[in-house]
Amino acid sequence: MRPFVYEQPTEISTAAAMASRFTRRDDQPTRANAQFIAGGTNLADYMKLGVAQPDRLLDLNRLADPGLRQIRVTDDGIRFGALVRMGEAADHPDVKRRYPVIADSLKLAASGQIRNMASLAGNILQRTRCEYFRETSWACNKRVPGSGCAAMEGFNRQHAVLGASDACIATYHGDFAQALMALDAIVHAEGARGARNIPFAKLHRQPGDTPHIETDLAADEIITAIEVPAIPWARRSLYLKIRDRESYAFALASAAVALDLDGDGVREARIALGGLATVPWRAGKAEEVLQGKPLDEHSATIAADAAFADAVPRQHNAFKTELGKRTLVRALLETRDMKV
Amino acid sequence: MSQPSALSATGLNRRSFMTGTASAAAAVPLLGSPVKAEAAHGSGAELRQPVVTSLRINKQSYELSIDPRTSLLDVLRDHAGLTGTKKGCDHGQCGACTVLVDGKRVLSCLSFAVMNGGKEVTTIEGLASSDGALHPMQQAFIDHDAFQCGYCTPGQIMSAIGCVNEGHAQSEGDIREYMSGNICRCAAYPNIVAAIMQARDETKGA
Ligand SMILES: Cc1cc2nc3c(=O)[nH]c(=O)nc-3n(C[C@H](O)[C@H](O)[C@H](O)COP(=O)(O)OP(=O)(O)OC[C@H]3O[C@@H](n4cnc5c(N)ncnc54)[C@H](O)[C@@H]3O)c2cc1C
Ligand code: SF4
Ligand code: FES
Ligand code: FES
C-alpha cells in the first residue's frame, strides 16, 4: 500500500476545503490525492490492492454534525445521514415498515460485520468488483484510462448486460442503490464551492468512453445525506436478490420493486435492477408496460422482456438476460401478493 | 513487527510522545497558505510520519506510534501481541479477524488502526473473566464441539456475541443468515449454530 497522511477533520466545510486544497479541480474523486474514508470497507480493500492510491486520507467519522448519523422521518419522507451504518438503517422500524425495499436491500447485502462498519454514502459509492479491475496487473480502462479492458474477452460471468460500452462492462454491485433508484432518492452533497442536491439517477455515470469517471461528484464533494420522498404505497415494495450462494454474496441478478395497485391493476410501478448493469439501473420501459394493466404472469413477462430488450450479453454472462427476466417476474408477482 | 519502544500499555513513552508532537505540528498549517494543488502532494517526510494512536484493547490502554497504513488486525497481532485474532483473507471476505469495537462486531482487517483512536476494542483474549471462567459463548463452542482446526473460531465467537447482542439470533435461520460473514473451511456450521443458540439462551437478560 502507498503511504498516506491521515487527517481527522471535524467540520464538513474543513473536510471539503482540505480535499479541495490537495486535489486538482478536474481530478476524479477516486483518483484524487486526497480521498474521504467512512467505513473503509471498500476503500481500505482497494488501497491494499493498489487500485486506490490516495496519499491523504480524510476520515469523515470525526465530523461533528449530528445529522450525519441520524435517520429522520418526516411528512416529506425519510432522510438518512451519510454516516448512518448499513445495519442501523436495515433494522430501523420506520424503514422496515414504510420502505421494505430499502430495509431488504441493506439486510441482504454483505455481512453483519460489514454492515456495522459501512456507511450509507460509502455504500452507494462502492466501486466495482470486476476481477480485472481489482488485480492491477490486468489492462483496465477504469483503473488506467486507455489501457484496454481485460474483461471483454476474459472471464466475464459476473459482468453487465445492460449499460455497457466498448470500453467497460463492469457491473455496479451495490444493492441499496437499486432501492434508492426505484424510489427517486435525492443525494445531498457539500463541496468547497457550496452545497447541491443530486437526483439519485444522475449520481452514477455509465462507462461510455470514460469508464474512469464513475460519478457526478467532484473530488471535494462530501455526501451529507440521502433523502427518500414520502411514497405511502412504497409499503408494497421488496428487494429480490439472486446469488451463487444463499447469503454473503453479490447479486447475479436482483430487482427492487414498488407497486401502487388498484385491485390487481397497476397505477404505478417502480423497478430497478441490480447485478446486471454498469450503474444502478431503472427499468423505465418495464414500468411503462405495466402502467394501467392488470399485473399477472403474462404482463410481468412482457415487462421483463421490455427491460432486457437492449441487453448485450458477452461470452460468459449470457445467462444473465434470462436470469434477470425471471428475477423481475418473480419480484413483481411477490410484490403484488404482499399483505400490506 | 513491533518495536518494543513503540508500545507502552501505561502511557506515552518518550519516543511516541515526540513523534506525537511532531505529527500534530505538521497538521496545523493545513488550511493556512494557499499552496497550488499540484504542489500539495504529501511530501516524503510527511508521508512517513508515524501517528500516535490511543487504543483501549480488552480494557487496557495502549499508546501506539504506528504507520497509518497499519490495519487494526496487524496492530492487535504484531504490536499488541494478541494473536488470538486471526488473519484469513485480509480483504473482508472471511470473518476470521472479527473483533468488537465499542461493542459492535467489525472486521479488523478492513479498519485502519488510526481510525479506532479512543475506541474500546474487545478481542477473544478479553472474553474470559479474570478468574479464568470462560464467556458463555466460548463454553458453548466447547460444549458443542463447534470447530475442527479452530482457525475461524475466534472470529466466529466474536461475531456470535455481536450477533446475539444485535438481536439477530432469534431462530436457527436467523443465525445462519446473520453469521454468514464468518466462513468455516472445516464446515463446523451445524455445531456453531447449536452453540450460539445455547449461549443465547444462557445470556438472555444478562
Ligand atoms: C466481502 C464483501 C462483500 C460485500 N457484499 C456486498 C453486497 O452483497 N451488497 C452490497 O451492496 N455491498 C457489498 N459489499 C460492499 C460494501 O457494502 C461496501 O464496501 C460498503 O458499503 C462501503 O461503505 P464504506 O462506508 O465502508 O465506504 P468506504 O470504503 O469508506 O468508501 C467507499 C468510497 O466512497 C467514498 N465516500 C465514502 N463516504 C463518502 C461521503 N460521505 N462523501 C463522499 N465520498 C464518500 C470514499 O472516498 C470511497 O471512494 C461487500 C463488501 C465486501 C468487502
Ligand atoms: S470491465 Fe471495466 S473495470 Fe473490468 S477490466 Fe474492463 S474496463 Fe476495467
Ligand atoms: S481476515 Fe478480515 S475478513 Fe478475512
Ligand atoms: S474450524 Fe477450521 S475453519 Fe472453522
Q: Could you walk me through the main structural features you see in this protein, from its secondary elements to its overall organization?
A:
- The complex is a heterodimer of chains A (340) and B (206).
- Chain A is an alpha+beta fold and 340 residues long.
- Chain A has a domain at 68-124 and 178-229: Uridine Diphospho-n-acetylenolpyruvylglucosamine Reductase, domain 3 (2-Layer Sandwich), CATH 3.30.465.
- Chain A has helices spanning 12-22, 43-48, 86-91, 93-98, 100-107, 112-117, 120-124, 131-134, 176-182, 200-203, 284-290, 297-307, 319-336, and strands at 5-7, 34-37, 56-59, 71-74, 77-81, 186-191, 194-199, 222-229, 237-242, 253-262, 265-274, 281-282.
- In chain A, the strands form three sheets. In chain A, strands 4-5-8-6-7 form a five-stranded antiparallel β-sheet.
- In chain A, a hairpin with a 2-residue loop joins strand 10 (253-262) and strand 11 (265-274).
- The radius of gyration of chain A is 20 Å and the shape is globular.
- With 206 residues, chain B is an alpha+beta fold.
- Chain B has three domains: 6-47; 51-126, Roll (Ubiquitin-like (UB roll)), CATH 3.10.20; 136-203, DNA polymerase, domain 1 (Orthogonal Bundle), CATH 1.10.150.120.
- In chain B, 33% of the residues lie in helices and 13% in strands.
- Residues 1-39 of chain B have low confidence and may be disordered.
- The structure holds flavin-adenine dinucleotide, iron/sulfur cluster (SF4) and FE2/S2 (inorganic) cluster (FES) (2 copies).
- One FE2/S2 (inorganic) cluster binds at residues 147-153, 184-186, 188 of chain B.
